[in-house]
Amino acid sequence: MKLNDIDLNKLAHFMEVVRAGGVTKAALKLTLTPSAISQSVRALELSLDTQLFDRVGKQMVLTTDGRSLVNSLSRYQEGLRESLAQLQSSKDVVKGRIRLGIFYGFSNTLAAEFLASLQNDCPDLEVDVIFGSPSELDRLLQYKRIDFAINLFKTAAELPLIESKLTADELWLVSSQPPPRRSLGFSELRKAPFVDYYRKSRLIASWIAHHFEKRVRDIPITMYASHSELVVQLILQGVGIGIVASSIAKPYVEDGRLFVIRGKKRQLESPIWLKENKDAAASPAKALFKTKMLGHFAMRPRL
Q1: Of 138, 143, 152, 142, nearest to 104 (Cα)?
Q2: What are residue 151's DSSP bridge partners?
Q3: What is the pTM of this model?
């Protein structure tokens, strides 16, 4: 006899009679009449040319062949359930490639911690990382060359970008030499050599404006280094002083290799944004990536 010759519904009715402990209870569970269940079981016995139950009064007791069929069907049903569960699970796995831009001043350590966590939680997500200046990343997002950008500045109104606050860093002015115990004055800072990131950067001017309420234009910049890691190394080499995010500077300060130059007020805090193109096509991979990134940085302890 071939499997195709067997009515699978009759096998299901048979197993329900076994599980329920009788025809009446099986009929209630399957919303059929007891007569229909009895006829189904009897038809199955005829097709298999064997007796599956001994009828003892109102009780139905499995025969040896009946117990053998139950054992075989139980294994079959369990295997089928596992296969269906695996199929469903494979549909639930989110796959895709994410193109992430990161501005040069962002901490490599923070980026690596998030990407390692993402790879552990979502191994089927692929992430390609590029670095760029804030304006370059906005342009790449605008033309849909990347999917997300970790960026330093808010978006210009005319760009089709949306932003979510990712985290925030204090901006520390640091030096390789211990500063005087007193706070440096405005005139002293104007004469100090600075290492900056970009020629059009307003970072140092913003720091001075925050602490001294002074607007300056002619800041002596000895070198533009783009990447925060290079800025730190140049400061360590004594090329100049510079402004570094607290998440990057803190290990060097704790080791006594960098020293914080205090201003007149609380440290200036800089928000960091996660940006995306509002007109870009949505996908499960992008939605998952954004949720994971925002959640990861929301749990980040503040310095």
Answers
A1: 152
A2: 273
A3: 0.64
Angle between helices 23-30 and 8-20 (to 10 degrees): 120
pLDDT in tens, 227-264: 888 999 999 999 999 999 998 999 999 999 999 998 88
Inter-residue contact 189 to 208 (CB < 8 Å): yes
Pinpoint the alpha helices (H) of 97-185. Answer: 108-121, 134-142
pLDDT tens column, 30-85: 888 989 888 988 988 888 889 988 887 778 888 999 888 888 888 787 777 766 66
What region does 50 belong to: left with phi over 0, alpha with psi -120 to 50, or beta? Answer: beta
108-121 and 284-298 helices cross at what angle (nearest 10)?
A: 130
CB 67 within 8 Å of CB 34: no
Q: Phi and psi (nearest 5°) for 222?
A: -85, -25
Q: Residue 15: how many CB atoms within 10 A of its CB?
A: 17
Q: Given CA atoms 141, 130, 292, 284 in this order, what sign does their dihedral have?
A: positive
Rounded average pLDDT over 219-227: 89
**DSSP H helices in the chain:** 8-20, 23-30, 34-48, 64-92, 108-121, 134-142, 186-191, 203-212, 228-236, 246-254, 284-298
Confidence (pLDDT) at 29: 86
Cα 58–Cα 60–Cα 61 angle in degrees, nearest 5: 135
